[in-house]
Amino acid sequence: MLKDITIGQYYPGKSILHRLDPRMKMIMTFVFIVALFAASNKIGLAVGAFIVIIAYACAKIPLKFLMKSLKPIIPLVLITSVLNLFFLTEGNALFRFWIITVTTEGISFAVVMSVRIICLIAGTSLLTYTTTPIALTDAIEQLLAPLKKIKLPVHELAMMMTIAMRFIPTLIDETDKIMNAQKARGADLETGGPVKRVKALVPILIPLFVSAFRRADELAIAMECRCYQGGEGRTRMNHLKMKLIDLWAGLFILACLAGVVCINIFL
Amino acid sequence: MSLLKVENLSYSYNKGTSMEKNAVKNASFEIEQGDFIGIIGHTGSGKSTLIQHFNGLIRPDSGRIYINGEDIWASKERLHQIRFIVGLVFQYPEYQLFEETVYKDIAFGPGNMGLGKEEIDARVREAADFAGVHPEYLESSPFDLSGGQKRRAAIAGVIAMRPQILVLDEPAAGLDPHGRDRIFERIKNYHKKTGSTVVLVSHSMEDIARYAKKVLVMNQGGIETFDTVENVFSKAERLLEIGLEVPMITRVFMALRARGIDVPPDVYTVDYGRSEILKLLEREGIKHA
């Protein structure tokens, strides 16, 4: 069950989206999020949804993958739609029942919010589907490089992220092992009320923490043995280079943002 | 009726993906009450996957597992009970320790069985004694112990459930020779005193040869042979073929046979080898000092 987690899962491929510079992809994702929230009506959001669909088709990500990343936000989407549906009581009443009033505005707002959340998750997931974690942290490091001037340890932050991502699968594996070991001693993780279930996590979390600290300690020693001193004067193996295609991609997303703003103003 | 019966068991990882791996293929065998079984096989031969089926941690894709004649997947309540009948000690079990004191940690299993306080106390002390955890360590934190002591405390945590079958996956991995011997002697002593069934998983032939009565050899997820130690080691060539080590002494006797000297093929302990050499010398009329 733990193996189903898809956060930051890379889907190998050779599409345009895979080949784009990770820095440009991050900027594009950021612009895309801005555009999503800037879009205030249905047409603007339809443009956003359209971009997501085109991008997924381009990257050849299977629908199954997308569904997996959308599954955890289904409750969130449902709650927001229901709240919007029932508590937005201004406008044309469609029907009334007891204290509930459903209005056309309520319905349209619920749809807009749902589409926005789904596009947001789908769009940002696309970044991690088409970019390896290493390329991603490299991009973050370089994008944030100007902040070094105000003494922000950018390299160290990027390194911490790389290490954290590197250890996600390891820790998932470890959790699986510890869970099995405690189950073998009769630990019951699946039944009982919420309090009992939280208590049942103690035999898993404590060994997991102990092992995480042990691994961190070992890694720190291994890094020191190889004279790691942080970012100062460090050269890199792969240099990121912006190409013409990155420029076009950037222009495309900016055009989309401009389009959404125009739709807002004129429609 | 056998204690544990495995019937046509198959299991694969990553089903339905390109990385599908058939970990156990069509395994069938029976283990009797009081047996001391060794399971050997090279890395990735499916040993660990197989034993996790014994107490229902993994559900087989096909095939059945019976304990005392009862299908363990018949009902969910029963499955929980099976965990106490088949005590499974994982590789590096010291990583499962979590309580404030060694005593409480050993008591975790019996506590889950819903036993009374006095019964738990008796079991904890008995298990600690079997596993070689000194009583004075019972009140200290498990995280303060040395590696070997942690390992023994974790093994005690499983013994305390008084399982009918004790399954140990590489119990001596990563320990020094002295620590290894101590663990194995403890397990052997436990087997002798309680008469309960022990299944020992290892890739060290020396250990299996020294302690087990019967050996189950795994190769690429399938069961190669399941026979007495003598019979298994008499086919030492085959073991070498599938990438397993055989004990040093067996190799010596294989070399002797290859040179046309008349010695038995099933030599797997030094003592047995010594008596065979002496017999041979006598036959040849050579007196030893």
Order of helix and strand elements from N to C terminus of chain A:
HHHHHEEHHHHH
Strand content of chain A: under 5%
User: What's the β-strand tally of chain B?
Assistant: 10
Q: Strand portion of chain B, in percent?
A: 15-25%
Radius of gyration of chain A: 23 Å
Strand order of the largest sheet of chain A: 1-2
User: Over all CA atoms, what is the radius of gyration of chain B?
Assistant: 21 Å
Q: Any idea of the CATH class of the largest domain in chain B? A: Alpha Beta
Percentage of residues assigned to helices of chain B: 40-55%
Strand order of the largest sheet of chain B: 6-7-8-3-9-10
**Helix share, percent of chain A:** 55-70%
Defining key terms:
heterodimer, A: 267 residues, mainly alpha, 2 domains, two-stranded antiparallel sheet, 2 strands, flat, B: 289 residues, alpha/beta, Rossmann fold, six-stranded mixed β-sheet, 10 strands
Detailed description of the structure:
The complex is a heterodimer of chains A (267) and B (289). With 267 residues, chain A is mainly alpha-helical. Chain A has 10 helices and 2 strands. In chain A, α2 runs parallel beside α10 and α5 runs antiparallel to α6. Chain A is flat. With 289 residues, chain B is an alpha/beta fold. Chain B folds into 2 domains: 4-229, Rossmann fold (3-Layer(aba) Sandwich); 247-289, no CATH class. Chain B has 12 helices and 10 strands. Chain B is globular. The mean pLDDT of chain B is 89. The chains are: A mainly alpha (267), B alpha/beta (289). Chains A and B meet through α8 and α9 of A and α2, β6 and α4 of B.
